[in-house]
Amino acid sequence: LKLLPSSAWLDLPRGRRVPGAGHGVNRIAAEGDGEGREGVAKETAVFEEHLVEKGYNPSSARNYATQMAKAFRDYHCSIEAMCSKEFDDLVSEKTYLRPVVRAFARCFSESRPDIRTTKTSGSKASPGREATKGRHKTSKGLSAKEKRLLMRKRTNGFLPGQHRRNSLLMSDRALALAQAAARAASRGPPKWKAGLPPGVRPDTGGRLFWLPKDWYQGVKTTCRSFLRAFVSPWGKIYYHQPTIEQILGRKLGPGDGLEGAMEWAAKQLSQGKSWFGRNPRPGFKADEARFFQLLTRAERAHLLEPSKFLFCVISARRATVREGIQRICNVQSQLLAGGATPVWYVDKASKDAYRKLGLKVVVGGGLVEARNKALCDAQKQGKVCVQISDDISKWVYFKTAQMSVVKSLSEGNEVAKHADRIQVSPVAAARFLLAKMRGAEKPTPRLGGVYPLGNTGMSFGHQPVLRQHFILGDFFVHDRSPCRFDPRMTLKEDYDFTCSHIAKHGSVMRCNRLFAFAVHESNAGGACSARDSQGERERENIRLLQAKWPGVFSLNGKGRRADTQVVMSWKRRKFS
């Protein structure tokens, strides 16, 4: 409809719309030929009646009929001419008018066969609407495999992401012009430095990690929805990553497959960046100064330098999975930003994959063996051992003015919502915990950790610090204690380790306002590989815990897998 002159449109009164019209039909064209709006309405009714008879639903029929009537009057030609090949040629470059042409052809099939049923060279005729009625399958009641096969059939063999990606690629002629402009622009500064093109404003969000440095990231101002616009060095605007990759002739961001992911991760880590190409160092410095102000003067006296710690990342079978490589990259970059050089304790089978990423690797064996080896290595070096899981995304401290314990979860959620969230590096979190442990009242704890759940509101139902509660194995600080993990445990080894510390030293320290957000029980590799679908291995370890520490562990009693989860209460311990 943009083909029609703007003077041909007549605005309707405010609040009035064409009944039953589809998107975009909010105005009706009127020519000054004596009939005006009444003539258009008559022709619309005639066309609409024909389209309904041909199988269109009433809303589509009214939409196309309105456009057909306007086109019919604008071009001043007969219906036969509107259904002819010449009219097709007239609007061949106006793709938004093609549905109107099809509607003309379908409405008057005696003058010209329907475009959708016309047999072209090298292709078979498509069946009409009535012929295919009832033959289209739906995904309702199908298995996951059948749904994928049906989706491939609907998208001509492509998966949904592949089909969309291929549809964004440029034609050969447009690509040749863009590449010629790119070569010419490489000899000078980008044009967008002199001023952005019309209709583009700066993007105030974070810069996309895959976008080249000489491209500008903006936002389209003429689009009602949020649409990112990427301005090329030669001043042209593009909107999609596949199009930019086609012009530049190279892959942007992580490559396809496992090898592409490993190459990308190794490149990012060599520059101290995360998987998304960001350097976390500037943000950490600003927040860590406020973070350490939360310590008392006596506790700040126990703040040690990062070189006094041995940071041990316990990992297994993650470097052979793309998702695991991404998490490895994020953990390593945060440790490097905090000033630490971590050691990765991994399984023997995947050690080479970890070394390809540029990590410092030590073969640790199984989960418990790797944990104990890390503790022994820290003791030999005279350092504090910090053990970290390889799937932690961030460390956050929730600072609030309210120190009292809330009485309900809803109240806790409200407090957490308005808390000051201080995101810190794992190095700063370890230094913070050790300072609190060494500055605490006797009995002095030798094991410290974070809140074990991701439910921030629930944490405000407890005191900020607890001394005889469970310490999560995903992130803990071990201050030169003789306690070790029980080799008999294959899962839930951190529960047994916590009890060993309380029995030996009289207390532990759990900071309930510090969180290490991790992925539990769902990602590939690690301890998840030691679990079985029936949960029998977890039940076996629970029986071992209950026999070793009578009365301390009881079944959770909530949820589908209540018999595979436990609640720890040291005060209920029974002595024989």
Q: Mind explaining what this structure looks like?
A:
The chain has 20 helices and 18 strands. It is of the alpha+beta class. Strands 7, 8, 9, 10, 11, 12, 13, 14, 15 and 16 form a 10-stranded mixed sheet that branches. A hairpin with a 7-residue loop joins strand 4 and strand 5. Helix 1 (36-53) packs across helix 2 and helix 2 (58-75) packs across helix 5. The longest helix is centred in the N-terminal third of the chain and has 18 residues, at 36-53.
% residues in beta strands? 5-15%
- Structure classification: alpha+beta
Q: Could you list the spans in which at least 5 consecutive residues all have pLDDT below 50?
A: 1-35, 110-136, 155-160
- Helical residue percent? 25-40%
Rg on CA atoms, Å:
33 Å
Number of strands: 18
Number of helices: 20
Average pLDDT confidence is 78
Report the span from N to C terminus. Answer: 88 Å
What does the largest sheet look like?
10 strands, mixed
Global outline = elongated
